[in-house]
Fold this protein.
Amino acid sequence: MQLQGIPASAGLAWGRALHLVSSTRQSESPTIPLVRVSAELKRFDAAVGQAIEAIEAIRASLLEEGRTEEADIMEVQLVLLQDRELVGKARDKILHLHYASHAALEAAMADVLETMRQHSHPQLVERAMDLEDVVHRIGRNLRGEQSVLEGLEGSETLVLLCESLTPSEAVLLNPKVVAGIALIHGSVTSHVAIISRSMGIPTVVGLGPDLQSIADGQMVLLDGTTGTLTVDPAEVLGEAEVLREAEALRETQVPRETQVLGEAGDPMSTAEAGKRQIGRVPQLPRVRGEGGRDTGRQLLSNISSCAEAATALSEGAAGIGLFRTEFLFMGRNDFPSEEEQFATYRKVVSTFDARTPVIIRTMDVGGDKPLASLRLEEEDNPFLGKRGMRISLMRQDLLRTQLRAILRASAYGNIKLLFPMIATLGEWRQAKAIVAEVQAALTDAGIPYNQSIDIGIMIEVPSAALLADRLAQEADFLSIGTNDLIQYTMAASRNSPSLRKLHDPLQPAVLRLIHQVIRSAHSHGKPVSLCGEMASEMAALPLLLGMGLDTFSVSNEALASVGWQLSLLSERWDSAQLRLAAEAVLDLDEASDVRQYVQQHFPELQQVQVLP
Ligand code: PEP
Ligand code: MG
């Protein structure tokens, strides 16, 4: 059997299929409706049963190794799980108070600890730790992380099959074991695709419900470059042939979304072509913008970890255009402390010299990046709910901690601060006022930080795009997040493969908005960056150059190919010609007309085939 999906992260994966149940299907809300109570009890009992089995297995292997002391600890945990105290109390709360399992567990644990405290239990501290441990274990089972965390070890490589995967689950994956990811849903701009690309895990999204018919343990071959998934490929091709093909393909692996024809007409990645041509990411020519302003066009990198900052440096990025800090908060049960965050931000900024820009965006959770530790109520439509700045303004304790850490790190380099999902002037002013308060507290405490740090606004909600002139007046820079801006403008989810024609950066409505944002910002002398996936869409590059975009920020994997195309375009065309082209497409009817226009007017881009 062969399924066709959408290539989201290039490369070839060969391994045994394993289905994962994603936590996205499970409720984060503390309560459940009455009709779900009996199903919730079953879910809870299954999670407890799984925990008992796992602890028994750990205990048995500890005993085998003669580690009796540790085995005794496991024994205590088993007793906790098997007696009625914790589990019985939690079941009662589900049954009578209609608590969701995770909330019932937390409440039951608090009750048990309180009883122990009242009786001055001599082993209160140790028991509290054991309790927490088993509660977390059951919690992981409930969220489906059990299989992610504990099933994915061993010598065989696996290809994960799932309906969808949250970014917090994706960051927990071990790329040594997880060779590939195959999703029923998802799209190239979904966060899980962005993460799998940055982790280098071949991924295909939008494979459809047939994925469910593949059994666990079947051998599959996943091709993240063409978007195909072949089940039992050895049966069709013979194992030796598959392995030979796999090896050959791995050697000539075509990365990412674009291919360009090499001299002999063979497909070669634009990244490869770019590297062969100039060795490293080219320095973009400095182009004079409106009124002779030096736009200092730059190509920066999008990252979500320290490791990616080092790769950005070695790949030749001119800095970091977007550090998605929310990933520091994911895959854990607590929030990172100020010290932990400070250490991370300092390490990232210290990777570069003191003048290199490093744009750090405050935590942008919500939407398709839920954060279990926030314990927010379930929403009908999370993308139109509490997200990004909205959550930070609700949880100012978290925002202030993060701001302190970022500001302290700003003493070590050229950090710029960026706020996500701003929709109104009020939100922006509130955010800025909180920055001023945190700055004042640091000054009072004599803690060094960059007092003239640049502060920018993500333009990813249409209201912010329409208010760009007002926002630009008060901000130091704007950064357009097209992944979200397109989905909110076109009312087409960034995660829906069937709506790709609508979620298209070349939609005239999207281009008009972007054009307006850039013009508004420039009229106030403020630079504009674009850090959505659109900045690595080849057909969009001449248009963005023509609109006068100052900074392109792309994933590390796209740096070389985008850099190469940008320098080629800037060399061949002057800014007046590019501007005319950018203005001409604003009057076209459809995205397909824009694409055709670009192909006709920029023949050098015809070499580039955008996949798919
Ligand atoms: C965007 O929306 O384009 C963006 C860069 O932010 P994220 O993809 O993290 O939502
Ligand atoms: Mg966004």
